[in-house]
Automatic annotation (TrEMBL):
Name by which UniProt lists this protein: SH3b domain-containing protein
Superkingdom of this protein's organism: Bacteria
Keyword Phosphoprotein found: no
Annotated SH3b domain residues: 28-92
Keywords, sorted A to Z: Signal
Claim: Iron-sulfur is one of the keywords in the record: no
Stored SMART domains: SH3b
């Protein structure tokens, strides 16, 4: 095999490297749980003890550190541990926090029409956030909620 085709093959293989490389970026950053079950370990290897098992696909997490296919994460309760990177997704999600129900509004403004309400602990898809309001969808229902009511919105 001549060197030119070999080099082209090598360059094309590197261009389409593993999906985990998409999460190799500056920390901290937001991610969410891709799997229906995810083991959080006390260290960055399958040899370490399992500290917690997540069974909530879509739960937002904050990635604090990267180490060879593993991510040190923090969950909404402040628990920290290591998870395998392929079971996370960079898709943005958020969880409702605070006391009492949160209002999902038709428009991003105080005093707007309430479309529906969500309780603390509800997880949804996060859209754009602007001037203290975020687009938030749960299933096929969407609207705007105050950014302060969401963990997973804003700067990690």
């Amino acid at each position: 095999m001549s060197r030119v085709p070999f080099l082209l093959l090598l360059v094309s293989m590197l261009a389409f490297a593993s999906p985990a490389s998409a999460q190799d970026r500056e920390v901290p950053y937001w991610a969410s749980i891709r799997a229906t079950e995810l083991n959080m370990r006390v260290g960055p290897s399958a040899d370490y003890k399992i500290a917690w098992v997540y069974r909530r696909q879509g739960l937002p997490v904050k990635v604090l550190r990267i180490m060879e296919g593993w991510r040190l994460i923090e969950d909404p309760d402040g628990s920290r541990g290591w998870v395998v990177s392929r079971l996370l997704t960079p898709d943005r999600a958020a969880i409702v926090i605070g006391e009492g129900e949160g209002a999902i509004l038709a428009d991003p403004e105080t005093g707007g029409a309430v479309k529906w309400r969500v309780e603390p602990g509800v997880v949804g898809t996060l859209g754009d956030c602007d001037e203290g309001w975020c687009e938030f969808a749960v299933g096929n229902r969407a609207g705007y909620i105050e950014q302060a009511r969401l963990w997973g919105a804003g700067e990690p």
